[in-house]
Design brief:
This protein is α/β, with parallel strands linked by helices and about 350 residues long. The protein has eleven helices and eleven strands. The relative contact order is 0.17. Bound molecules: N-carbamoyl-L-aspartate. The site of N-carbamoyl-L-aspartate (NCD) has 12 residues, from helix 3 and helix 7. Belongs to the aspartate/ornithine carbamoyltransferase superfamily. ATCase family.
Length: about 350
Amino acid sequence: MMQFQGSHILSVAQFDREAVSRILDVAKLMIPYASRQKRCHVLEGAILNNLFFEPSTRTRVSFGTAFQLLGGFVHETVGQESSSLSKGESLFDTARVISGYADVIAMRHPTMHSVSEFAEGSTVPVINGGDGANEHPTQALLDLFTIRAEMARFGKGIDDLNIVLMGDLKHGRTVHSLSKLLSLYDNLNITLLSPEALQMPTSVIDSLENAGHKITITDKMAGNLQSDVVYQTRIQQERFSSKEEADQYRGHFSLNKQVYEQYCQQHTVIMHPLPRDSRPEANELDVDLNDHNNLAIFRQAQNGVLVRMALFALTLGVDEILHKHEKPVTWFSNKQLSE
Ligand code: NCD
């Protein structure tokens, strides 16, 4: 079994199926705390440093919320311009210093593999919140948690599913990490739907094929959306050389109510890591599906808190003693979480 305590979480390649299952199970234990039925300040006094050198809403805020729900303090640095990296300091030095101030660090950076480089200098666990187009392991775990929770409604598990990954598969780090995690499961039918120029990197396709999954690569929605899950992604404009280049690919795979009814199955669950581009010209995931029960995108974002709480509990070695720290919640709350 993987040793979580004291470990960095940098890539999904670190996990086997047993480790993933442990993370998802601990995430489930967090439901009463995240939904404010009970509180659990097992990390009281611990400090998280959130270092976000690239735009983020969900990942940064949910890392912070997760840590605070477990009773810890959160310190935030946002944007390279506000850190000494802009004075030429190396990632190693920044890590060595910041890790002296914190018990755990969550980091996002625009350069591929930079979070691993940073982790080499850190004396405390570092959790990758996204390193350029490379990986986004915590997103992949929350995606998998969501797939498991949503499929349970239909009496299904993760094995044997039909899953469509659609959009900018070349630059989207969430689909890279998710695909690698899906390689741990059995007998999946995976459709990679993207413009030809934005296809999934071959290394990721190889890992899916080596797992024995059936892979379909296509640029057509018609006939290819009859699946258990459709996971849509945003055109990652910031990874193109110009906005004009990114614009060429907008609107190719607009998913709206009419497309859903025409091409999807009645039970197809729609996922998206968010943010979706809601400007009308983006033509991405339409708001006309907002009331659809199978639109899982907001449940998915909520699940991020559970999975990040689980990773903090595991890396800081408190996953076995949660119940000892339970206290009642004394304020009004009407939160409800799935599963
Ligand atoms: C994603 C990311 O940053 O990779 N967002 C997220 O963390 N949920 C997806 C995206 O930006 O399109």
